[in-house]
Design a protein that fits this description.
The structure is a homodimer. In chain A, strand 8 and strand 9 form a beta hairpin. In chain A, helix 6 crosses helix 7. By secondary structure, the first copy, chain A, is α/β, with parallel strands linked by helices. In chain A, strands 4-15-14-13-12-11 form a six-stranded parallel sheet. The radius of gyration of chain A is 21 Å and the shape is globular. Chain A folds into two domains: 288 residues, Queuine tRNA-ribosyltransferase-like (TIM Barrel), CATH 3.20.20.105; 93 residues, no CATH class. At the A-B interface, helix 13 and helix 14 of A face helix 13 and helix 14 of B.
């Protein structure tokens, strides 16, 4: 029997918290956790070359099933050798199922539409979700649990996600339960539809209700009953926590995350979807999360927001017009080693592409370096101390 | 006495044509000619990092006095250590005088306004030119021959240009003569105003009139008469040909270029401003030009036009949707080594920054490689053969 395409082991546990480091093996190489995954929505981490991501220490990127299946189309990508080859990225790729974009674009307020080409019409059915998008001129599409897997397998994703329904933070318990039952049925159908050996993650839903989160985890992590799913390739390889960062207060997000990681299997990776700020990352690493993705560093980079060790800066502010200093004196990134705030500001004032590039390089470095420091401090048993110092310095 | 900051020598002459190779020394290092200078209008060659330009073999870039003096301001750049430090570029920089932008923005049709933030009001006076620009909200500015030099010296330019008036291709002989007399007086004032040892180039005007071009060259290259200009630092270090590529037919441009290089001193570099297509470069190298600048490779790159050895391609065309081939199979650039037409097209369809980057890398490589091949074929005595093969292949 061939070795499994995917494995995960916890390599170190923090003595004071639930923080942990781990090692994950995928069909495109190994990842150490906690890991931050830059988001490559359209088959590119915006403004960046793959080689630059490697230089920054990115180990895995995220691809968006919704966007890529509509444009250029997963069949096109498959024909061209898969997403890795298409986008010239040889390290692992995690793909979402497309559900979040469809629901968030159909429900203004849940997602950020700025980069997502407008509103689409969405019809939820037991079988899946029917939608139209302005990207391809409003052709009717249908995404089912089975087709979500088929698309992700066509892309050649190393870590696939089940299709789930996503709700607002304000959804009541009845709505959330109804939605959770549907997501559970869809998850089961994904498990059965899976054809390849690549990893498949379940997504824990249940909104802001702990009882529902608990029930969801119990039901989704129960040993499979039907024959096909008893095989190794028909079990979930990890667990994502979904339905957070959708408008709830930070403390609620931390609390639900903490609650979920208390219940999730200890030996499987936990992925908190769409989170978050630098502080969020440390808070949730402390609560036992292994994987993060967020558009924040690249998106805020493109608007001239720079994350630094002494707080966040708006580079366009007039105070930086003549500033010869780099964004962060303590930062070793390419941008900070070579450019002044005055120059980066000038690039933004002139709408030059280089502004977006320099800011994205800096911000991704900041996130990836934060994750590296978190890992090494977990390994050294000094995670809490590191977290306190990092947070205090940024709050000053 | 310190060695001169600038020198030029012809190293090889083509036996059949006026094509020649040369070596130019500047305060920021040596350049071999013929040379193509990527345009860095706002202190950045659009979409590119300086290191990427070095990788592509760029030896010198052009900076725009007009743009940089308005934003962020030459005083700001001087305070920050000069343009080289500001933009993180350690190789030579040539700056224009600002005249071309002011006149072209004030005379719709002469220049390309797309990237230049709109129309400005322009008033020509004996002393210089008064103008307003939307870049800084319409503040009144005055650019004189003296201030054009002062700005370029503040930027730390290695090769400065005199201030001149620029005309349309349609200007009649009376208008052209009047303008030429003014440009000659301004050139003389620039020569006297020069404070540093960095190179200063004259600009040959005279429009489409050979008699005026001849007179201009005779008068501008005549030995200086006034005392100050007898010193080494008060002579022109090279000659630009201005007032071409402003709407005249290609053949006229080639003919005037050829006429001018017959008359210009053999031992000084000749720079044809704002030219041109790949074919233009070879035609004008053949006619004795040493230096070129043009926004074409970077600008057309950003709109998805790719220059290749088998002609120019519009990457957005539907025919490339599934095309697994690189833009140019015979091209060794980063883009062609790593990406398909399908991927580059996808980047453009999604308005991704990476599209502009990949296309700019390819196009600049194409231009810089063309220049390298021209040089080596001049050195090998095979320039005409090379030119014929290159042109035929692109025409197919």
């Amino acid at each position: 029997m061939a070795p499994p395409m995917f494995s995960f082991e916890v390599t170190k546990k923090c003595p004071q918290t639930k923080a942990r480091t781990g090692r994950m093996k995928t069909s495109h190489g190994e990842i150490v956790t906690p890991v931050f995954m830059p988001v490559g929505t359209q088959g590119t981490v915006k403004a960046m070359l793959p080689e630059e991501l490697v230089d920054l220490g990115a180990e895995i990127v995220l691809g968006n099933t919704y966007h890529l299946s509509l444009r250029p189309g997963h069949e096109t990508i498959k024909k061209l050798g898969g997403l890795h080859k298409f986008m010239n990225w040889s390290r692992p790729i995690l793909t979402d199922s497309g559900g979040f974009q469809i629901f968030s674009l159909g429900k203004p307020g849940l997602g950020d539409k700025k980069e997502d080409a407008g509103i689409i019409s969405v019809k939820l059915k037991e079988d899946g979700v029917e939608f139209q998008s302005p990207i391809d001129g409003g052709i009717k599409h249908f995404l089912s649990p089975e087709s979500a897997l088929e698309i992700q397998e066509a892309l050649g994703s190393d870590i696939m996600m089940v299709l789930d329904e996503c709700l607002h933070a304000e959804a009541d318990e009845t709505t959330t339960r109804k939605s959770m039952e549907l997501s559970l049925r869809w998850a089961d159908r994904c498990l059965k539809a899976r054809k390849t050996d690549n990893a498949l993650f379940a997504i824990v839903q249940g909104g802001m209700f702990k009882n529902l989160r608990k029930e969801y985890i119990e039901r989704i992590s129960a040993p499979p009953t039907h024959e096909r799913t008893k095989a190794r390739t028909h079990q979930y390889n990890g667990y994502a926590i979904g339905g957070l960062s959708v408008g709830e207060p930070n403390e609620v997000m931390y609390d639900i995350t903490n609650y979920c990681t208390n219940l999730l299997p200890i030996d499987k990776p936990r992925y908190l979807m769409g989170v978050g700020t630098p502080e969020d990352l440390l808070e949730c690493i402390e609560r036992g999360i292994d994987m993060f993705d967020c558009v924040m560093p690249s998106r805020s980079g493109r608007t001239g927001q720079l994350h630094t060790s002494h707080g966040d800066l708006a580079v366009k502010n007039a105070q930086y017009k003549d500033d010869p200093n780099p964004p962060d004196r303590d930062c070793a990134c390419y941008t900070c080693r070579n450019y002044s705030m005055a120059y980066i500001r000038h690039m933004f004032m002139c709408n030059e592409i280089l502004g977006a590039r320099l800011a994205t390089i800096h911000n991704l470095h900041f996130y990836l370096n934060l994750i590296r420091m978190a890992r090494s401090n977990i390994n050294n048993g000094k995670f809490l101390e590191f977290k306190r110092e990092f947070t205090e310095r940024r709050e000053k």
